[in-house]
Specification:
globular, 158 residues, alpha/beta, 42% helix
Amino acid sequence: MKKFTPEYFMSLAIKEAQKAAFKDEVPIGCVIVKDNKVISRGHNNRENKKDVTSHAEMEAIRKANKKLNNWRLIDCDIYITLEPCLMCMGALYQSHINTIYYGASDPKGGAVHSSIEFSKINNLNHYPNIIGGILEEECSQIIKNYFKNKRTKLIKIL
């Protein structure tokens, strides 16, 4: 019997991040869960789609909206390998997602606590629960490895 823990669902998000890396996209992945069932998956797809909004979270939100036939994701949780950016936090807020679980912090663009503290924005009608650091080392390592590999390839070209 599967044990439905945050680590289990984050491991599925990591698999999505690996799909992004395989496509030469920044390896960020996520899954959206309702009632312990994955209802959508997403990974970064900006380069391939030539679409700035094709972050992992946005891809998964669109699929979940379609599956539930609703723009609200009430009673849903999202597991993301990297702290969401401001755009994605805005979409997660608007969707009324219940809990945001993320792996690694993003000191350059994270909008949970790194660059912007979303919870300190006043007068919002919904504040999702936020839990960070789930499989943090694994989530961080996949991104570090991706950029290390990109730099190595660039050096070989030069």
